[in-house]
Design a protein that fits this description.
This protein is of the alpha/beta class. It folds into 2 domains: 154 residues, Ribosomal Protein L4, Chain: A, CATH 3.40.1370.10; 51 residues, no CATH class. It is 33% helix and 15% strand. The protein has a 6-stranded mixed β-sheet with strand order 2-1-3-6-4-5. Strand 1 and strand 2 form a beta hairpin. Helix 2 packs across helix 3 and helix 4 crosses helix 5. It is elongated.
């Protein structure tokens, strides 16, 4: 699959790049995508949720009424979960939501996501560029020139570029990552994937192992 390289003005250049069919044109595996996205979202969870149970609620342990003769159910102390202000039964406790996923399966998921984007013609190859200083206006112009300002976009750079990252940070739906940090969730969540020309080789080297 060949794509024309665009410049930051959104115009086609004379250069073309050929995408590796073993990365951008495989048989997609939906279950691998599901597992990788599930792991990514699970890893974002803090797991710090906590509710107080009856042994942790502040209150008296005095028996609030006699055992028999009241005509109502037996009751112990005021911290009983059945009473207002009592503890919670089987409430959430702090826990770690992370789980393991094999590296080969993660690679398969990323290749499947890139294949879907290639099929949908949602991949744009952009000439390597840089900003002299962080400027959101310049990055907005770049997205407008490429025709993706109204979509969620993912820009993939070959290496970290602080000025480009800071220029995109305030824009809703715009994200910048390096080729070594791409994940299935970001790829599937983006309406358009913008690949810096030099990032393609890095992506193919990582996912072709």
């Amino acid at each position: 699959m060949e794509l024309v390289v665009k410049n930051i003005s959104g115009k086609d250049t004379t250069k073309k790049v050929s995408l590796n069919k073993n990365v951008f044109a495989i048989e997609p595996n939906d279950h691998a995508i599901y597992l990788d996205v599930k792991q990514y979202l699970a890893n974002q969870r803090q797991g710090t949720h906590k509710a107080k149970e009856r042994g942790e609620v502040k209150g008296s342990t005095r028996k609030i009424k006699k055992q028999k003769g009241t005509g109502t159910a037996r009751a112990g102390d005021i911290k009983n979960p059945l009473f207002k202000g009592g503890g919670r039964v089987f409430g959430p406790r702090p826990r770690d939501y992370e789980f393991k996923l094999n590296v080969k399966q993660k690679r398969l998921a990323r290749k499947s996501a890139l294949t879907y984007k290639a099929k949908d013609k949602a991949i744009i190859v952009l000439e390597d560029f840089s900003f002299d200083a962080p400027e959101t206006k310049k990055y907005t112009e770049l997205l407008n020139n490429l025709g993706v300002a109204n979509k969620k976009s993912l820009l993939v750079l070959s290496e970290s570029n602080k000025n480009v990252y800071l220029s995109s940070r305030n824009l809703k739906g715009a994200k910048v990552v390096t080729a070594s940090d791409i994940n299935t969730y970001d790829l599937m969540n983006a309406g358009s994937v913008i690949l810096a020309e030099s990032s393609i080789e890095t992506i193919e080297n990582i996912l072709s192992k």
